[in-house]
């Protein structure tokens, strides 16, 4: 299968492993271009018989995926629609990473906040570089909530209390803490991350595809109500987007330099920008 025509991704398949490299400078923003490419590549990987493992990585070590495009969120309706009965495009895209009959692995060398964090949480496994990998769900500081699966993925991994600390605290979680909490499978020195992930991916890809798919299907059955939870999250997200506080804070974030490389790399940049707002 040919993997051509992507604006924000590069795909290479070798020895049963698809290496999907996110290349969308300056910060790998989860905008419509990247969302569209992720939707397309997920659909293709799911049905490709040559692929048994999918590894997602970034072309630049500083940003895996910064977060979802706040300017895109600002275009959502100011009046919340009724609760949805089916998954919208972003939920469908990340949920495919969890349900496709291939192993999905995130190799995280840099920042993955907001929608970037939700994407890696939807992968089967997450490995981060010590001293470089940073994870966070900072949406509440903007007056909204994680709307791309974060409220559903975090509690089973880290527990309810730590999930609320991450979501309500809106602070960066470094790789060593993320590993200890279960946010990451493992945190490794940067020089060891690539070789470890490649060895694991190749090892899994050497096993029968039917066994990989059925093992993943059985494990997924341990969480039977995921879609219902995602629909409730979507409804709460839409309600939050419609609030005055969210509109004001998102506007302040964009006007204050949000989504620029300079602000996004600064620890606490978001909190500092919004400090003192009601």
Quick overview of this protein structure:
This protein is α/β, with parallel strands linked by helices and 278 residues long.
Q: Report the order of strands and helices.
A: EEHEEHHEEHEEHHEHEHHHHHH
Strand proportion, as a percent range, falls in 15-25%
How widely separated are the two ends? Answer: 52 Å
Main sheet strand line-up: 1-2-3-5-7-10
Main sheet properties: 6 strands, mixed
Count of beta strands: 10
Rg (C-alpha, Å): 18 Å
The number of helical elements comes to 13
Helical amount:
40-55%
Shape: globular
Explain what this protein looks like in three dimensions.
This protein is of the alpha/beta class and 278 residues long. The protein is built from 13 helices and ten strands. It has helices spanning 32-47, 70-73, 89-99, 115-122, 150-158, 160-169, 175-181, 190-205, 209-220, 226-241, 244-255, 261-265, 269-274; strands at 9-14, 17-22, 53-58, 63-65, 103-108, 111-113, 125-129, 134-136, 173-174, 186-188. It has a six-stranded mixed sheet, with helices on both faces. Strands 4-6-8-9 form a four-stranded mixed sheet. Helix 1 (32-47) packs parallel to helix 3 (89-99). The chain is globular, with a radius of gyration of 18 Å. The mean pLDDT is 94.
Quickly list its features.
278 residues, single chain, six-stranded mixed beta sheet, alpha/beta
